[in-house]
Recover the amino acids of this structure.
């Protein structure tokens, strides 16, 4: 008998009597504006908010945030980077990127998370090899909590999708919190609707 | 295999006073952060009930959900493998790597691969395995298993890490600054992400509806491990299945709040299908789980989402350290899982508990941990797996406690004994309660004496 059939057979034989599946409510009662809750949660998780002017060139704004940056790679047409992602053949090529720029699909007020998939990154490694990440987010696209975030069902047909919440972090040595563990060192959200 | 003596093993840990105090404090701090976070969610208790019910539903329909997961993962372009036990799991991973000439594996933290002792298996067969989680990497370099399922090196102080790194990756032995140590590991690990042939993760959840593997991490290492190499392998225990995407909301809201007291992990990653031109493999591992599912008292432990809250709150775990359990899973959850792997080897572990029930009350999926600990003690006593001193003591206690007259006589004598017995008779090998602590002073009269005098009607 194959391992598969053996395991499934034993599981089926040993399963306790069936129990029913409960419905999951949305729990939407949290008070306060979703934008403000998003900002507060993001800052708790070590992320930053950069207040960009409502109009004007975002590319210049991003450059001013990171004056030292040599390589800026943008996955959104709203910001012109210094290197195009179209020519990238291997994800490791992004190892020298100082700043990556992406537009998130939506945000989550409860946790300060942004949702990104392979469509937003173009090359997934951009979100992890870059030293810093700038995320554009439409303030009208912030959902209240994770239950609502997971109800955006079509998003989960992406091959890869991630809720990013602030920069990469570790507290594995004596509980000392360090931002910039293996991935991005900073994450900056710019709240602005798509042009 | 030799029987683990938890008390004996923890005595080493207890001797290092600085370590013991820090360990106790650090984990209690995590417990308090967990309290603060959970108290901010008005529906917290409702979420626990939901999480428990979703898990129980899934486990009682597990075969169907496993098949659904396999169907969808396969349709997504992933290859699904099934492993009866640790040996088969390790062989599958080796075969996948060898068939593609892969020699370097970067991996995120996975308790399952620790359970399977995969790393030494692969390393002995020419595969270079790089643990990329900082805590797990420290443990790999120090040739020790993780001592905690969420914070693997929590028993080490910065000086210990500085010594390990100086010896292995060439850091300055005199520099134990935590930022310096973490940055050194980042610089040391990064080239491996770029050149690795394969990446590996465990799974926090596997969604039947979509065939998605969900991984919750903080360091970015899991996403680097999957998004750079052309080959991705996910090792998943069969109990990690959840039915639908919408159920993730319940678990993700509670996982990091329970584990670290943060609202969510920095990264909650959903791997459904391979990138263009790349491969994704999923290894579904049984290794004793299907058998545990058939144990009426113990199958509830399969609900565990590995948050570690029960460990952080446990007074015995905090003061004995994870390594003293001599098993992959330590603390209260380990105490109820480990005996299912090997009853004799782990028969002392269910006694490493005060039965205070704190583990049960913090568990986000409502596992009745302390009740299971008590049940394991009964199983172990019935099978004669108790050590001699404990067996004798329990037999005497059983006789005394079942006979009111004997009990009263014993309590009165014990009170007198504590006051008048010479020390060597109180504090010796036969009295475990006299080790590492002074027995409290006896009350001047027993409760019964007081009651008869003050409350008993004439």
């Amino acid at each position: 008998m194959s391992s598969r059939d053996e395991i499934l057979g034993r599981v089926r034989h040993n399963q306790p009597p069936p129990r029913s599946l409960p419905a999951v409510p949305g729990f939407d009662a949290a008070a306060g504006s979703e934008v403000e809750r998003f900002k507060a949660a993001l800052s708790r998780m070590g992320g930053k908010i950069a207040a960009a002017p409502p109009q004007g060139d975002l590319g210049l704004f991003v450059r001013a945030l990171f004056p030292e940056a040599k390589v800026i790679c943008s996955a959104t047409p709203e910001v012109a980077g210094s290197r195009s992602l179209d020519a990238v053949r291997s994800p490791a090529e992004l190892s020298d990127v100082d700043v990556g720029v992406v537009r998130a699909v939506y945000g989550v007020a409860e946790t300060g998370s942004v949702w990104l998939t392979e469509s937003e990154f173009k090359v997934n490694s951009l979100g992890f090899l870059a030293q810093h990440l700038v995320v554009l987010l439409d303030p009208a696209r912030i959902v209240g909590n994770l239950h609502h975030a997971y109800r955006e069902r079509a998003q989960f047909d992406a091959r890869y999708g991630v809720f990013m919440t602030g920069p990469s972090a570790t507290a594995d040595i004596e509980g000392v919190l360090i931002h910039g563990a293996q991935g991005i060192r900073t994450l900056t959200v710019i709240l602005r609707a798509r042009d | 295999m030799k029987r683990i003596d938890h008390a004996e093993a923890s005595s080493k840990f207890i001797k290092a006073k600085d370590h013991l105090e820090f360990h106790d404090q650090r984990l209690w701090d995590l417990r308090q952060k967990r309290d603060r976070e959970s108290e901010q969610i008005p529906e917290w208790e409702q979420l626990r009930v939901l999480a428990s019910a979703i898990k129980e539903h899934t486990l009682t329909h597990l075969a169907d959900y496993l098949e659904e997961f396999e169907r969808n993962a396969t349709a997504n372009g992933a290859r699904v493998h099934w492993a009866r036990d640790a040996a088969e799991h390790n062989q599958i991973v080796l075969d996948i790597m060898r068939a593609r000439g892969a020699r370097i594996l970067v991996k995120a933290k996975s308790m399952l691969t620790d359970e399977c002792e995969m790393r030494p298996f692969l390393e002995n067969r020419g595969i270079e395995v790089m643990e990329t989680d900082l805590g797990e990497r420290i443990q790999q370099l120090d040739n020790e298993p993780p001592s905690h399922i969420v914070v693997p090196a929590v028993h080490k102080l910065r000086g210990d890490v500085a010594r390990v790194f100086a010896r292995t990756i060439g850091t300055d032995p005199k520099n134990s600054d935590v930022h310096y140590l973490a940055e050194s590991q980042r610089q040391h690990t990064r080239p491996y992400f770029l050149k690795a042939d394969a990446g590996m993760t465990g799974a926090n959840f596997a969604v039947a509806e979509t065939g998605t593997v969900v991984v919750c991490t903080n360091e970015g290492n899991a996403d680097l491990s999957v998004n750079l190499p052309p080959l991705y392998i996910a090792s998943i225990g069969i109990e990690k299945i959840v039915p639908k995407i919408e159920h993730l909301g319940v678990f993700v809201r509670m996982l990091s709040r329970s584990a670290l007291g943060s609202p969510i992990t920095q990264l909650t990653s959903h791997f459904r299908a391979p990138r263009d031109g790349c491969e994704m493999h999923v290894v579904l591992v049984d290794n004793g789980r299907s058998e545990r599912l058939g144990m009426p008292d113990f199958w509830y432990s399969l609900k565990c989402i590995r948050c570690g809250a029960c460990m952080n709150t446990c007074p015995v775990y905090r003061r004995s350290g994870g390594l003293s359990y001599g098993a992959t899973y330590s603390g209260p959850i380990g105490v109820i899982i480990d005996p299912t792997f090997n009853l004799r080897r782990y028969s002392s572990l269910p006694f490493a508990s005060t039965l205070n029930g704190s583990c049960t009350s913090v568990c986000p999926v409502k596992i009745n941990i302390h009740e299971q600990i008590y049940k394991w003690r009964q199983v172990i006593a019935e099978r004669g797996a108790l050590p001699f001193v404990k067996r004798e003591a329990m037999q005497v206690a059983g006789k005394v406690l079942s006979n009111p007259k004997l009990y009263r006589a014993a309590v009165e004598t014990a009170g007198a004994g504590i006051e008048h017995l010479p020390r060597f008779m109180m504090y010796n090998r036969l009295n475990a309660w006299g080790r590492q602590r002074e027995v409290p002073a006896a009350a001047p009269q027993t409760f019964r004496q007081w009651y008869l005098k003050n409350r008993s009607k004439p």
Chain B has three domains: 1-32+302-386, 41-287, 394-454.
